[in-house]
């Protein structure tokens, strides 16, 4: 399976696109009114010295477009100077046009008069005119390296719902087409995207009108904005990476367009840890450009909206209001230096033979399904991704609607209430052809048609289900223990794994079965079958009667939990054990290859203590600087280490 790692072109053709969302300390969103080119030059110089080559800039819409048919020449002159300052600093920028939302505040052009953003023909025409005129003035400037239509426009259009179930998708797609056409009509040849945050139904399970599949043919890159509030550190560290994996659509580059932390929520040390984790995890998850939020703090504007009512928004900066670099900026600097050392342009993610299947019920509005189904698919799939990465598996995320790649040896179907009927038939065919297919039973988390919608479950897995109609078999304990009755992929017979249990009353349930032509691999503490295998053709169908991924997804601070051991065993059974792994659940590995043949291995700690691991490898690991053999890796708290992998020669 090919895993995406497409890159945006950069002007120098070499450097990774390492940027920052930029407002000057001279005014924040109102910087163009108080524009000071010398201060901008100083700020850019400091950022460039720390490895940042790009900014994402913002044309504050009410100032740049004060009347329907007029642009502000004063603001445009300031922006022209801003571009020249970038050129002088050896930097580039990606301007954002329709800045009607920013940092917990919405601002309208004075002349909007309540018109609909997407469907009012006159208002859309004014937006297109504004964009075309700005592009035509600046597209030839060497500092321009891309365009963004908006900033988080779903919130601007409907801040109460963030667009969920209130914005018409057809209108959005037509609007995006017209505005992108305006960029091209203005002579813009640089990459363009929407700037909406990639919060659509294909990612979150909630439909806000910005459907990624419909926008993909129009745009040149995806730009997720990720500020998740989590209850588990590992889910927090890998959350953005999983979103990058979900954006493997159309082969388009994934730009981490916004992420970051406010210093009002976290201390400097933990802010640095978060930046380090997100930067490296998203690189391994398919991102190829990074633009954190944001460049500087805005303490001088505490009496100005939006900072007066959302004061934590003042302190997302990489630099304090006094110009002092924060620990986060040093992490960005170090990451940029690492990518330069590895020759980022030549790096790619290696292919994989392990697929995590994401149900189409995440994104498709099938009739008579419950609102909760899509977000639950996201919740469960993300937890399964965390478990796979904890097991060091180079997992690829497969969307059901896109079909199963032909070259998968292990297919993981985690805690899935529903797949399309043809998909189940295809999974059985894949098993007959030699694949290992694992699926865990799940009733769903609500009582609407409660039960797994698996056609001919008994035949698929060689069991007889012992369910009563309309009822579930509840799990009342806080843990479920699987006791292995046979050796299985490195798990010895007699081993017990205890899985934490969480979730709703309806979701905390299991599937009672009797084996018919399936072997029992593990039982629960009451002796009931919990993990079974039906051999079919040259492969197998493996059933978990407990939705262990769903259980874990609903438990705070649960990771690492034993699903990673189960996944490691599945990989061993399928013959796809990773080439480099460690026996420490708090250290995960990942690999990237270089087009010149080199292979690099990441070791990423999820521990708040120093840890030393002894990698298990099919080849040799060497220090990428001096070439000395690496037999142990010591990682500081939440640390990252990268070594080179060299295959053993006969």
Write a brief caption for the model:
The chain is α/β, with parallel strands linked by helices. Helices cover 28% and strands 21% of the residues.
CATH superfamily annotation of the largest domain: Glycosidases
As a percent range, the share of strand residues is 15-25%
Tally the structural domains.
3
Q: Measure the end-to-end span.
A: 28 Å
Low-confidence stretches: none
**Roughly what is the average pLDDT, rounded to an integer?**
95
Helix coverage percent: 25-40%
Tally of contiguous helical segments: 16
CATH fold-level assignment of the largest domain? TIM Barrel
- CATH class term of the largest domain: Alpha Beta
Rough outline: globular
CATH architecture of the largest domain: Alpha-Beta Barrel
How are the strands ordered across the major sheet? 12-11-13-14-23-22-21-17-18
Helix/strand/pairing category: alpha/beta
Number of strands: 31
Radius of gyration: 26 Å
Largest sheet: 9 strands, mixed
Describe this structure in words.
- The strands form eight sheets. The chain has a nine-stranded mixed sheet with strand order 12-11-13-14-23-22-21-17-18, sandwiched between helices.
- The two termini are 28 Å apart.
- The protein is built from 16 helices and 31 strands.
- Helix 10 (268-284) runs parallel beside helix 11 (327-341).
- The mean pLDDT is 95.
- The chain is α/β, with parallel strands linked by helices.
- The protein has three domains: 17-347, TIM Barrel, CATH 3.20.20.80; 354-574, Class I glutamine amidotransferase (GATase) domain (Rossmann fold, 3-Layer(aba) Sandwich); 580-647, Sandwich (Immunoglobulin-like), CATH 2.60.40.
- Helix 12 (373-390) links the parallel strand 11 and strand 12.
- The protein is 28% helix and 21% strand.
